[in-house]
Amino acid sequence: MNDNALELLLNKAKKQEEKYEWLQATKLYNEAADLALKKRAKFKAAELQEKKGFCFYRAAFQAQTNIEFQRLLKKSIQAYQKEVEILEGKEVDNQTNIKHANALIACMRSWLETNPTKKKKMLEEWWSIEKQLLSIFERDTDLYSVGKTCNDLVELSHDMFFVVSDYTEREKMFKEATGFAEKAIQIFSELDEEYELARAYCFASWYYGFSGTFFEDQDKIMQLAKKCHDYADKALEISQKIGDAWLISRSYHSAWSAATFFNMDPLAAAEIGQNMLKYGSITKDNFVMGFGNCLAGTSTTGLFIRLEDPDRQREVLKKGVKMIRKALRNFQIINQIAGSSMCYMYQCLAFATLAQIEIDLESKQTIFENTTKIAEEAIDVLKNWQFFLTEAFQFLTAITGKNTVQMNLKNWELLWN
């Protein structure tokens, strides 16, 4: 094998990654892995299979349909399985790499799973293996791998945070995840590694956005709220310097939490949501586009309170609903239940608000009928997800209780039971 040929392929693959052309990159990594195997450079071939698996994973989030999403994720799993197969056939000890590949297989499978119990089991398997690896890297004083593993644990635990069974588990996870993030920040500040440092700030900020859920002491909440805000700013500063649209978009996600939950600034939150969507659209990633649409739409609907003209209020509410519906389509493609739950609730809130400002009684009734349809769909989607179903029930009960127009509460009660 000509090393120049391999280098040429890898350079081409890297350029495709930089353009977020993940599917094109998989073809180049596959060709490169085949070249490495022909030369019996098995460790290199395994490394390239892992890169191929990652690219299929990212390509899956660009899918146009859920079927395509599943197909590409299965391709990712196959690439990681091929990595394990190559490594198991080598004479040298590759247990660390094999463990990491098996962890990634569990993580990819969790995205395919729509049953919360099975999804939780797969995520727990991934979480457990990655924590074992973290201990190995710490023992070997491999600082880069320690920091990178911490970042992976924090970033990829997004779904796990919502499938854990109770408040105590969620609180434990919050503390673990923020601890990992702080460790990554310290390591990558010392190593002067900007991309991973931006990731650490970004996902630490996202977790600190939940501080009000786990602490009662106001001084503690304000301290962590400041971290949420400051870390989001640092993540944005570094990611914009690097020019990575995906990381910029994720950093705006964290900044939205600070603007919404701590600064209470819906205008700033709406602008941040639009920026998240702007950069997310560059990546064509349904996760970041979904949250961009959802958060921008949610904040846009919240702007109605600043307007006095009922026609302008209707305009912003309808604009927000349109974006939230786009977000729901993004989330349905990638089995994103947490995002879907938000979309259902905030659509209902927007419709309930429209009903409040609507004068015509017939129009009010039509709006309520639409709200009921959305709620029925939400129940069907969330019926196995106790955390989201309970949250949705409480949220929508509060909405209907605040409406100035009487609804058929008996029907709502039957609906939610």
Could you please describe the fold and organization of this structure?
This protein has 417 residues and is mainly α. The chain is 84% helix and 0% strand. It contains 20 helices and no strands. The protein has helices spanning 3-18, 22-38, 42-60, 66-88, 95-112, 116-139, 143-156, 158-163, 167-191, 194-208, 211-214, 218-242, 245-262, 266-283, 286-302, 310-333, 337-357, 361-382, 386-402, 409-416. The longest helix has 25 residues, at 167-191.
Catalogue the unreliable spans.
401-417
CATH top level assignment of the largest domain: Mainly Alpha
Task: Tell me the number of structural domains.
Answer: 3
Fill in the CATH topology of the largest domain: Serine Threonine Protein Phosphatase 5, Tetratricopeptide repeat
Specify the CATH homologous superfamily of the largest domain. Answer: Tetratricopeptide repeat domain
Beta-strand proportion: under 5%
CA-CA gap between termini: 66 Å
- The secondary-structure element order is HHHHHHHHHHHHHHHHHHHH
Main attributes?
Serine Threonine Protein Phosphatase 5, Tetratricopeptide repeat, 0% strand, globular, disordered C terminus
Short description:
The chain is built from 20 helices and no strands. By secondary structure, it is mainly alpha-helical.
Secondary structure elements and pairings:
Layout: H1 3-18, H2 22-38, H3 42-60, H4 66-88, H5 95-112, H6 116-139, H7 143-156, H8 158-163, H9 167-191, H10 194-208, H11 211-214, H12 218-242, H13 245-262, H14 266-283, H15 286-302, H16 310-333, H17 337-357, H18 361-382, H19 386-402, H20 409-416
